């Protein structure tokens, strides 16, 4: 049975989470993601779930840690400053191999910043974000449908890798309304031989991150590293107009959404411009971009920050005689399709003529 | 011959790493005895906190999750909500519970989470080497109050049991000491009561245990135990501060 609804991105995430079997939500209010806790508070009781408005983002992430350690599917959501507070807990989740889904409907920073859309949390999301050498899978939807689909997928990925998964959106995606086609989630089974249920008819289990014996922590970190390498199997990206393109524009999330219109405008004017939109920001599609660079030499990153993802683009294609250009702007205003068209047109003219 | 004393089944047969005269070992035993008494071993999930007691999982034969510093009460909240039929306890020191974890413990208590909190107050940060804790006594010398805690700049030793007893969400709040057999017997009774309130689904149970840290107090175990009685007990009175029965 598919049902169509007109919903905000924030609501799509909440609906997707409940469909994926999330029965525990812990959060603390912050704009622009309040529709998520509000939806959960209203609808989780219908499915026998638990909603707690916690005393802080720190408490929220640790409640999630407890619920997930007990084998439940749990989610927390926040926006940039709140995500900074959750980073301590995210580090512990990764270290103790406890799954969980964390939503960052990011706003603009630094500091209290503002509530307008921003992609300024790219580094924080893709480089671990807290202390220690760890990674979370980062999914970046660019539509309301994708917000829903990726949230469902996030729960499976979290359980599959016993690692937190982050959904990285922004105020634009959270507040925009689009039609959403719901689907029925088919439950997948993952090993549950680590969850804490009480040591009945088995040895007692420990979920921890402290390793003090000689060599133990090194071994633990190598194990985690290998897991992060395995996550490359999950790389997702979307491409448009790659065939015969002379310039590839790389963008994610809401900016990629705007760019789709700008690129269409450029195509209509005969410019051979293609798009690559990473959907997984970690793991990043390095190999795919490198492969594209065998035939296309000009790349351009467009971001709603002063240059973060462009570093990953350079790591992918920057080591050859490829040209990597960048257009970014700090938060505070949303670029229009016309404005972005002008920016990519300038680069196209400069590099291709 | 009748056996009158034995190691609780819940305690694993390994030597504790604690310093000579440290009271953690005694408190571990008390908690394990309670778990045995109510036959809870197979349904217990413990929350270890940061500090000397982080190695809880090396000694207790129960499922354990290690919480970030101060967050044990929030982790316990998630565990208990997800597994209401399991027995959930946290074991936290004074730095963990009364400094960095103040928000988490107050709000877990205020929500009336049905968990049991064992709070070890030895007036000092033990694992990090003897710095001032929120419970450090006025005038007490620590590595970060080398001239003694001055209340006009460092504030006053915080009375967690009294503070939590004010909250309508709590069910059982008590303080005991573990520095000698007489106090220990009372501590055991109070701990049992804190276990029972969870077993009976009555709500939040909390026991603060005054204990010694001879190493960081730079005292002999004997004098440290004496200090608990002579200096701590007069400021941190023993007894039940809140008991609500259904």
Fill in the keyword field for this structure.
heterodimer; A: 353 residues; alpha/beta; Rossmann fold; 2 domains; seven-stranded mixed β-sheet; five-stranded mixed β-sheet; 40% helix; 20% strand; globular; B: 246 residues; two-stranded antiparallel sheet; 10 helices; 9 strands
Helix-strand blueprint:
The complex is a heterodimer of chains A (353) and B (246).
Chain A: E1 4-8, H1 9-19, E2 24-27, H2 35-43, E3 50-53, H3 57-69, E4 74-78, H4 80-96, E5 100-106, H5 122-126, E6 137-139, H6 144-161, E7 164-170, H7 171-175, E8 177-181, E9 206-207, H8 216-230, E10 237-240, E11 247-250, H9 253-268, E12 273-278, E13 280-282, H10 286-292, E14 298-303, H11 309-317, E15 323-328, H12 337-351
Parallel strand pairs in A: 2-3, 2-4, 4-5, 5-7, 6-7, 11-12, 11-14, 14-15
Antiparallel strand pairs in A: 1-8, 6-13, 10-12
Chain B: H1 24-37, E1 44-48, H2 56-59, E2 63-66, H3 72-82, E3 87-93, H4 94-100, H5 102-111, E4 116-121, E5 124-125, E6 131-132, H6 151-154, H7 160-165, E7 170-177, H8 181-199, E8 204-210, H9 214-217, H10 221-235, E9 239-243
Parallel strand pairs in B: 1-2, 1-3, 3-4, 4-8, 7-8
Antiparallel strand pairs in B: 5-6, 7-9
Helix pairs in contact in B: 1-8, 4-5
């Amino acid at each position: 049975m598919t049902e169509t609804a007109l919903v905000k991105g924030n609501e799509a995430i909440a609906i997707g989470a409940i469909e994926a079997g999330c029965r525990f939500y812990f959060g603390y209010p912050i704009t622009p993601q309040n529709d998520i806790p509000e939806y959960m508070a209203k609808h989780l009781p219908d499915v026998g779930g638990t909603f707690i408005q916690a005393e802080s983002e720190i408490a929220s992430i640790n409640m999630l840690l407890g619920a997930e350690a007990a084998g439940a599917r749990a989610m927390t959501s926040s926006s940039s400053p709140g995500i900074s507070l959750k980073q301590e807990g995210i580090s512990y989740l990764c270290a103790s191999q406890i799954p969980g889904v964390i939503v960052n409907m990011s706003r603009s920073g630094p500091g209290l910043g503002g509530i307008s859309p921003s992609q300024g949390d790219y580094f924080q999301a893709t480089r671990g974000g807290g202390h220690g050498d760890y990674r979370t899978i980062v999914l970046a939807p660019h539509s309301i449908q994708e917000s829903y689909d990726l949230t469902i997928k996030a729960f499976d990925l979290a359980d599959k890798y016993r690692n937190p998964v982050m959904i990285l959106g922004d105020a634009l995606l959270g507040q925009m309304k689009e039609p959403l086609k719901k689907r029925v989630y088919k439950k997948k089974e993952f090993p549950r031989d680590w969850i804490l249920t009480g040591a009945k008819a088995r040895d007692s289990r420990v979920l921890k991150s402290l390793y003090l014996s000689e060599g133990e922590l090194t071994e633990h970190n190598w194990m985690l590293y290998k897991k992060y390498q395995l996550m490359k199997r999950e790389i997702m990206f979307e491409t448009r107009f790659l065939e015969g393109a002379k310039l590839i524009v790389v963008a994610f999330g809401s900016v990629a959404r705007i760019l789709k219109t700008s690129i269409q405008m450029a195509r209509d004017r005969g410019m051979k411009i293609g798009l690559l939109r990473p959907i997984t920001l970690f793991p990043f599609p390095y190999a795919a971009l490198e492969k594209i660079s065998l035939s296309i030499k000009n790349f351009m990153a467009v971001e709603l920050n002063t240059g973060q993802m462009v570093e990953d683009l350079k790591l992918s294609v920057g080591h050859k005689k490829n040209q990597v250009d960048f257009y970014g702007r700090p938060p505070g205003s949303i670029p229009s399709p016309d404005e972005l068209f002008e920016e990519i047109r300038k680069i196209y003219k400069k590099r291709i003529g | 011959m009748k056996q009158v004393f034995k190691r609780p089944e819940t305690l694993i047969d390994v030597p504790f790493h604690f310093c000579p005269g440290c009271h953690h070992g005694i408190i571990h035993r008390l908690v394990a005895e309670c778990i045995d008494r109510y036959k809870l071993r197979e349904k217990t999930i413990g929350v270890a906190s940061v500090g000397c007691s982080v190695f809880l999982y090396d000694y207790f034969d129960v499922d354990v999750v290690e919480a970030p510093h101060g967050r044990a009460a929030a982790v316990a909240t998630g565990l208990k909500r997800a597994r209401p039929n399991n027995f959930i306890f946290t074991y936290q020191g004074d730095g963990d519970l009364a400094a960095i974890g103040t928000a988490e413990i107050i709000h877990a208590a205020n929500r009336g989470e049905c968990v049991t909190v064992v709070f070890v107050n030895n007036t000092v940060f033990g694992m990090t080497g003897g710095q001032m804790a929120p419970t450090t006594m006025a005038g007490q010398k620590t590595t970060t109050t080398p001239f003694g805690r001055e209340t006009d700049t460092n504030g006053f030793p915080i009375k967690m049991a009294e503070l939590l007893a004010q909250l309508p969400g709590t069910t059982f709040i008590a303080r005991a000491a573990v520095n000698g057999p007489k106090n220990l017997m009372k501590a055991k009774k109070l701990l049992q009561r804190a276990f029972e309130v969870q077993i009976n689904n009555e709500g939040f149970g909390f026991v603060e245990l005054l204990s010694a840290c001879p190493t960081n107090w730079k005292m002999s175990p004997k004098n440290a135990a004496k200090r608990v009685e002579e200096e701590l007990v007069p400021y941190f009175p023993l007894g039940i501060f809140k008991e609500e029965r259904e």
